[in-house]
What does this fold into?
Amino acid sequence: MDLLLEDSGYFDVTTFGLGIGEVLGSMSFAPKEEIILSGCDEVESIIKACGLKYEFFKKNGDRVAPKERILECNGDAKSLHKAWKISQNSFEYMSGIATYTNKMTQIAQTINPNIIIATTRKNFPNAKELMLKAVMDGGGVIHRVGLFDSVLVFKEHLEFFANKSKLELGFKNLKSKFIEKKIAVEVDSFEKANYFASLGADILQCEKMIFEELRECVSLQKSYPNLIVSATGGITIENIELYAQTGVDFVVTSSPYHAKPMDIKVEMRAD
It folds into this structure.
């Protein structure tokens, strides 16, 4: 999707109507509160397409204090106004996700320094790339990009096996066909976790378990030392501390995608 075309269309009727399009000026961006910055690549593409001269003072992943300059652009009013809002929106939404992810990671790693915050494939349609970049700028990792990059067995897959023996055969075939990949299975009880660990699952994704049962699943690592245990389902910045205390290796969450956009102030001036 062309971000610039989506916002500006064929021409800016207001700037054209006012007759100010050729007047030279500048535009700068700075946050109103501390942020983890994301969106620099997208904004750079926008301002280049608009033919503006520019200088970045910060980069993706930087912690930016209130009123610190992120970027300054120079050019005519027509080009500045064309780049203005879509650039501001990109910074605000992506930095919101990055800042949320970073805060969530900091809280969790205060409890468990090795825990990882991973985000799901439940992104807003057509915004996947932007959301995933923002998560990584905030210090998170990507759980799954899509169906093609990892193996994850859901209960919905299991519905298509007539009995346990056919399931076990199917699981064995899965492991042999994708021998270089880790096999993850979503489970919603300790009983199922123990069963799939015994079949050779590499990762148990524990779905909406109470904390006591989640700790039981973590205890399976005593019998299966290479087993990785994650928690998922309703994990947010408000309860991440409790999940980190269970001893899971990572959490899987969609909550960063719903983060509030950060407030980026734009100042435009005529030369």
Summary: The chain has ten helices and 13 strands. The domain at 104-258 is CATH 3.20.20.70 (TIM Barrel). The first helix runs from residue 3 to 8.
